[in-house]
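Quick note —
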Amino acid sequence: MEDLSKVKVDSQQGSLTYLGVEWVLLKVEALQGMFDETYRAFGSGALTIWYLAGKGAGRAMVKLVRSLERLGSREVAERICRELSRMGWGRFEIAEWAEETENFVFRVYNNPFSRRGAEAPEETGCIYIKGYLEGILEELLGRPVKLKETLCVSKGASYCEFTSKPPAETSIKA
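Predicted structure written out below.
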């Protein structure tokens, strides 16, 4: 078990702080229900909402970690992966990190959006995690990075995997 002794609960104010900022706890079923309800209401538009929400959250987490300590890009990403794992978002792992070639591979075990397996909608809430990871990378690298989910627990894999593909080289023909 990871030590979460830095979590501070103020019952009188109704707040919880960790890493110096406020957080909210919710049941996994509540998170899944939020995704399901937005998907029912907005269809595929909900995927855009969850993707953008994830991207913003990923960027914000980079800013938070950078405000706590000076680390290189990979170290910031590793710290965020550890914190997400501590907070119950699944076990995050960086399987590959190559900034110079823009090759990145993230694995997420026990992702709360895909824990339902066959019960998950055809288009899963993994889009939030994808956006979150892209937000981290874009904030760290200062440029757009696109990831693709290549494996998903809801489709039978043992983890969800998100990979980047380096941009194809183009040649200009005269």
